Amino acid sequence: MRTLIGMILGCLLTIGVVYVHDSMATSTVANETAAGTSRAIVNWDVAKSEWVEVKENVRMAWLKLKANVS
Fold first, then answer.
1. Would the pTM of this model clear 0.85, i.e. be above it?
2. Rounded Cα gap, residues 39 and 25, in angstroms
3. Measured CA angle at 12 (ends 7, 51), to 5 deg
4. Residues 14-31: pLDDT tens digits?
5. How far is the CA of 25 from the CAs of 4, 15, 40, 44, 49, in angstroms?
6. What is the mean pLDDT of residues 40-63?
């Protein structure tokens, strides 16, 4: 159980650190720093659209499973 909690916590910590890094990277561009020196690691718009698609697929799978059981 500790291993599972550790893996989940590690994933959340990794995502949080990358988000903070990316927000700092984009703010330095806004402060007129050269765009080539600091780039974002994740394209957050694409990540958001993929997450929405995953949630929709899980919802559809749940509805299919529920329909097959009843």
1. no
2. 6
3. 110
4. 999 999 988 887 665 555
5. 32, 15, 6, 13, 21
6. 92
Tokens of 14: 């990794």
End-to-end C-alpha distance for the chain, whole angstroms: 33
Rounded distance, CA 3 to CA 65, Å? 30
Structure tokens, 33: 């720093």
Q: Is 56 exposed, middle or buried (0-12, 13-18, 19+ CB in 10 A)?
A: exposed
> How far apart are the C-alpha atoms of 49 and 61, rounded to whole Å?
18
| Confidence tier at 40 by pLDDT (50, 70, 90) | confident
